[in-house]
Amino acid sequence: MTSWLGPDEWRAVALSLKVSVWATLIALPLGILCAHALARWTFPGKALLNGLVHLPLILPPVVTGYLLLLTFGTRAPLGGLLQDLGVVFAFRWTGAALAAGVMGFPLMVRAIRLSIDAVDPRLEQAAATLGASRPWVFVTVTLPLILPGVLAGAVLAFAKIRRDDHLCIEHPRADPDPAFGHLCVPSGAGGRSLGAEAGRGLDRDCHGGAGPVRMAGATGGKAGGRRMTLSVRLQHRQGDFTLDARFEAPPGITVLFGRSGSGKTTLVNALAGLIRPDAGRIAVDDRVLFDSDRGLCLPPHRRRLGYVFQEGRLFPHLSVRQNLLYGRWFAARVGPRADLAQVVEMLGIGALLDRRPAALSGGEKQRVAIGRALLAAPGLILADEPLAALDEARKAEILPYFERLRDATRVPILYVSHSAAEVARLATTVVVLDGGRVVRQGPAAEVLGDPGVTPLGARAAGAVLEARVRRHHDDGLSELDAGGLPLFLPRVPQAPGTALRLRIAAHDVLLSRERPQGLSALNILPAVVHEVRPGGGPGAIVSLDTAAGRVLARVTQRSALALGLAPGVACHAVIKTVAVAPEDIGR
């Protein structure tokens, strides 16, 4: 082999590899940028850019090379301008690298774009809500996840260059085609002026010898301080749906409550900056996030929000610890920061810190997502049905952490739900949405105790009572004090003296005009009828005032008529002890 290739040939091989490597390296950042633009951006001329990227796969290589020469040659306007700046491509190894990079560019972009398409864009949205700007989202989330695709694109481009633009050692000969004769550079003296210029340029790289080197591709190939409040007023039209909402959210958990399709998620995404409303104003205290009258719309990364999504959206390439600290890094200079150790202890995730999200259960992922939102130093926490994708056991695992969050943080929390049990257990304020409009808002006990507010239908109606654990009995029951009335439930884990919130479903309440005798039910509450609201069918919801608070009962209209139920009528509400499920009991 050594006798077959002399020093000049070895230098030619080295130059060929140099051109291929530099062509790939120079094309790579441009390929990543172009692939990301085609995969994620929306802009005029996107289809044109896509066509230009793939044009080298359609045109014969010699035509591509000739177009590059016309563009970057010393006689071309652009080439002449670059020459004045000391940058020369025509008939230099740099020009060969440029041509090779153009030929391999389409395959590189296609491979990288496929990788970007495979990345869930919701992960990028999550990063933005945690304070990362678009460049940081790309660097910290998108790029690490597409690295295999970037490597594949680089390898494909390099292979394309080595296949189509292989090294040729060309000896002096006549130009077979005068129209393209200036593309071949003779190794000896003579030739046309362009050839002589090219020969001088290549000689500086090849040191003379057996002949000049060129990349021949003519054969072608295939192609934490004070407590804050939230103020919302916005209008937004999306297809046939119109959202027109106005409400105030004080500290604590404000629940957006309503059936599916009522506009809850649209509203939360508008608060997060993921969609831009048509009109309105959004402010956290005096900090305005959106104001259509002023033309103000802060991007998501500048809103200082913590968003707990339904599916968690943890970054799969980061550990639990790194996920927790992701938003904190961007919030380092903005206000007080939550303590990592305290958040980890509150959420019980100390044993998970070194794990990756793939090794976590659904409930563990949601706890980590809550912690990540807290550590981003948010001015507002958004939770979009964070328990909807979990089974009942995982829901029971997560609900206590939201209760602790409600009681411990000064940051307002906007919680989206269509679960009456979650609303009753967590909400300090309820905002009821129906058809894109706010139909009721106020304290949880007041709103849920209104028989006219049944966004999920009469079967989901129920009221909230506040009680305190009085004692635990040996037979497995716990006795609570509800406004001075005893209330018996299956044993609860809380210690005596603990305040609890209970949801009493309307269909679990029986009514009697007289105090009943000989019943198995232990809870009999004296009551006065506040309102009787007939339903669309044979049923009716009766609102009752008791010493324990407002109670709802669902009965037939025939029963209400037979009992003579009307506002001001005294009666008794009967509640079975075992009718109150554990998920209906919170703090």
Structure description:
By secondary structure, the chain is of the alpha+beta class. Residues 166-225 have low confidence and may be disordered. The chain has helices at residues 7-40, 46-58, 61-72, 77-84, 93-118, 121-129, 134-164, 193-206, 264-272, 320-330, 340-347, 362-375, 392-408, 420-426, 444-448, 557-563; strands spanning 167-169, 213-215, 230-238, 241-249, 253-257, 279-284, 287-291, 296-297, 305-308, 380-384, 413-417, 429-434, 437-443, 462-472, 477-482, 485-490, 499-505, 509-512, 523-534, 539-546, 549-556, 570-575, 585-586. It is elongated. Helix 1 packs parallel to helix 5 (93-118) and helix 6 (121-129) runs antiparallel to helix 7. It is built from 16 helices and 23 strands. The longest helix has 34 residues, at 7-40. The strands form five sheets. A six-stranded mixed beta sheet has the order 9-10-11-5-12-13, sandwiched between helices. Strands 4-3-6-7-8 form a five-stranded antiparallel beta sheet, with helices on one face.
